[in-house]
Amino acid sequence: MLNELRLPTIGRLWPEFAERSDKEGWQASRLLGALFEHELAERANRRIERHRNESHLDPTKTFATFEFGLLPMVSKAHVTALATGESWLEKGFSSSSAGGGRRCHWNFIPEKSASLPLVVIGL
Question: Are the beta carbons of 110 and 99 closer than 8 angstroms?
């Protein structure tokens, strides 16, 4: 029934969580809250993974692997500050820079993770 309601994570976890809540004497609200938290977190992870797969972007391109020295007109400190700030995460960020006959377009994919994805097109 939970799969029909599109709650697969709760369907997978509820027996384990119910047993634990019985042993530890959880209130019903705590049990439901824990199950719903896991469902929401897993949905967010599946959504990010789905978008990543649909984008056909190279998942190895991150700020950690980007060579900022190849684009001296791009400040690593500025890009890192943009990436670690919270205000742009909800809407994403896009920027362009040009220099030396080359044009670079940056797309930052909104995702709260240790290694934020970076897409550089046109290098």
Answer: no
